[in-house]
Amino acid sequence: ALRGTDGALQYLLAAGYPVTVAVPAYLALIDYVLGTVFFDTSTAGRAVAAGSDGGVELLGLLAPEELADLRATGGAVAAPTADAVFAFGLATFLDGLQARFLSGGTRER
Fold it and tell me: pTM of the full predicted structure?
């Protein structure tokens, strides 16, 4: 675990992030990965949350006017695979990190 942490910090520092950004960025990334693993492997799982048959059955138990925005997606919430959602989130995280701290100068908050 320590070697993994060191390696990740090495990449972030080599990319130009200061320690004050590299450390919380690494920790946020680990939280994202572990949260995804937990969610994908939990008994509730992504399937029900994303509107699988179990989710559709749950929606059927509610009044038609409840969760109107979720219903309006027409099942699009269930369409992406877990891998696609993870890749989107990871790319968004990395793009945001770069835009916030490397593009146009370092902006620490």
Answer: 0.74
